[in-house]
Write a structure and sequence with these properties.
By secondary structure, this protein is of the alpha+beta class. It has 3 domains: about 110 residues, Helix-hairpin-Helix base-excision DNA repair enzymes (C-terminal) (Endonuclease Iii, domain 2, Orthogonal Bundle), CATH 1.10.1670; about 110 residues, Hypothetical protein, domain 2 (Endonuclease III, domain 1, Orthogonal Bundle); about 110 residues, Nucleoside Triphosphate Pyrophosphohydrolase, CATH 3.90.79. The protein contains 13 helices and 6 strands. Strands 1, 2, 3, 4, 5 and 6 form a 6-stranded mixed β-sheet that branches. Helix 1 crosses helix 11 and helix 9 packs across helix 11. Bound molecules: iron/sulfur cluster (SF4). The site of iron/sulfur cluster (SF4) has 14 residues, from helix 9 and helix 12.
Length: about 350
C-alpha cells in the first residue's frame, strides 16, 4: 500500500466512524465480527436482497424475513412456495430461488464458509456477494466493488479508460486502498461515500473526506468519471423532399399516424427512415430543379435531405395547398421547416 493509499484508507475509516449509515444489517463501526453464524446470515441475506433493489425497499422486507427465518437453518427448512411468497414484490425471483438453494447448502455443511473463495462456490453467490460477506462478516481483506465503489475509485484515481474495460484497473486500485484491518468497515465506508457524497451527478466534493487525495477533484472534473464508452456513431441516411409550388401555395401532405413525425404536416418525401435511405422516386413527373439539401440530427440517425422544386408539377394523392406566406402556421416539424426555408430562399 502506498503512502497515499494508506491516507485514503485512514481518512475514509475516520469519516465512516462518524458518518456510517445506520442500517439494520450493519454493526456499528469498529465492531469486531461475531463468532457465531447469525452474522454472516444477516450480511448475506441483506446483500442478496440489495441486488437490484433499493435500500428503502429492502429495509421492511429484511425485517420480515428475519422475523420468519431468524437463521440459516430456519430458512433452509422453509418451503419453496413460502419463500417465493415472502419475496413477492422484490423482483428478480431467481434471487429467491438461489437464496433457498444456498441456505440449504450452508445448513447441510453446518454453517457459512469463512473465506471469499469458499463463499464464491455457494449456489447463487457471485464475486461481489462473496467479497462483501467475506469482508463484512469475517473481516477478510476482500476487494468489494459495487457500482458506488466503482464510481468513487474511478474518480479518486481519474481512470481515463472507459467502462467496462476499466473494471480491471478499478478493481486493482480498489485493492490498493483496502486495508488489512477493518476491511468490512472499509467496504461499507466506500459504499456509503458513493451513496451519499460521491453521487453520480452532483458529487459533494466540499464534504468529501478524500478531496485532498482525489485526482478527479483536483482536475475539476469529477462527473466525467467513470468514463463511459462513446456511443456508436449515428448512421447517416439520405432522402429527398419535393416542393410543389403554384400561385403562392405549396403542396403539403400529412404523414401517416404511426412512424417518424407521425400525423404531422410535411413536404412529400421518398420514405427515408432510421433504417433505410429514401427510394429517390419523385412523387410526380416534372422538370424538377435540385435546390440543395438540409442536414438534420434525429436521436438515432442523421439525415441529409435533398430538396427539389417545381412550379409546374401536379401532385398525386391526398394533400393540401397551403399559402407559402403562412407556412409558419402549418406546424411543420423542424426538418421540413428547414427544407421549406431552403426552397423559399
Ligand atoms: Fe468523489 Fe468528489 Fe470525493 Fe473525489 S472529492 S471522491 S469526486 S466526492
Amino acid at each position: 500500500m502506498t503512502a497515499s493509499d494508506k491516507t485514503i484508507a485512514q481518512r475514509l475509516l475516520h469519516w465512516y466512524d462518524a458518518n456510517a449509515r445506520g442500517l439494520p444489517w450493519r454493526a456499528p463501526p469498529g465492531t469486531p465480527p461475531r463468532a457465531d453464524d447469525s452474522w454472516p446470515y444477516r450480511v448475506w441475506l441483506a446483500e442478496v436482497m440489495l441486488q437490484q433493489t433499493t435500500v428503502a425497499a429492502v429495509i421492511p422486507r429484511y425485517a420480515q424475513f428475519l422475523d420468519t427465518w431468524p437463521d440459516v437453518t430456519a430458512l433452509a427448512a422453509a418451503g419453496d412456495a413460502e419463500v417465493m411468497a415472502a419475496w413477492a414484490g422484490l423482483g428478480y425471483y431467481s434471487r429467491a430461488r438461489n437464496l433457498l438453494k444456498c441456505a440449504r447448502e450452508v445448513a447441510a455443511r453446518g454453517g457459512f464458509p469463512r473465506t471469499e473463495a469458499e463463499l464464491r462456490r455457494l449456489p447463487g453467490v457471485g464475486s461481489y456477494t462473496a467479497a462483501a460477506v467475506a469482508a463484512i462478516a469475517f473481516d477478510e481483506s476482500a476487494v468489494v466493488v459495487d457500482a458506488n465503489v466503482e464510481r468513487v475509485v474511478a474518480r479518486l484515481f481519474a481512470i481515463e479508460q472507459p467502462l467496462p474495460a476499466a473494471r480491471a484497473a478499478i478493481r486493482d486500485r480498489a485493492g490498493g486502498i483496502t486495508p488489512a484491518q477493518r476491511a468490512g468497515d472499509h467496504a461499507q465506508a466506500m459504499m456509503d461515500l458513493g451513496a451519499t457524497i460521491c453521487t453520480p451527478r452532483n458529487p459533494r466534493c466540499d464534504l468529501c473526506p478524500l478531496s485532498g487525495q482525489c485526482m478527479a477533484f483536483a482536475a475539476g472534473d469529477a462527473v466525467r468519471f467513470p468514463v463511459r464508452p462513446s456511443r456508436p456513431a449515428r448512421p447517416q441516411r439520405t432522402g429527398n423532399a419535393w416542393w410543389f409550388e403554384r400561385e403562392g401555395r405549396v403542396w403539403l401532405v400529412t404523414r401517416p399516424d404511426k412512424g417518424m413525425l407521425g400525423a404531422m404536416r410535411a413536404l412529400p418525401d421518398d420514405g427515408w427512415s432510421a433504417r433505410a435511405d429514401g427510394n429517390g422516386v419523385a412523387p410526380a413527373q416534372a422538370d424538377w430543379v435540385s435546390i440543395g439539401s438540409v442536414e438534420h440530427q434525429f436521436t438515432h440517425f442523421s439525415l441529409t435531405l435533398a430538396v427539389h422544386a417545381s412550379a409546374n408539377a401536379t401532385p398525386r394523392g391526398t394533400g393540401e395547398w397551403w399559402p407559402v406566406a403562412a407556412l409558419d402556421q402549418a406546424g411543420l416539424p423542424t426538418l421540413f421547416a428547414k427544407a421549406a426555408r431552403l426552397a423559399r430562399a
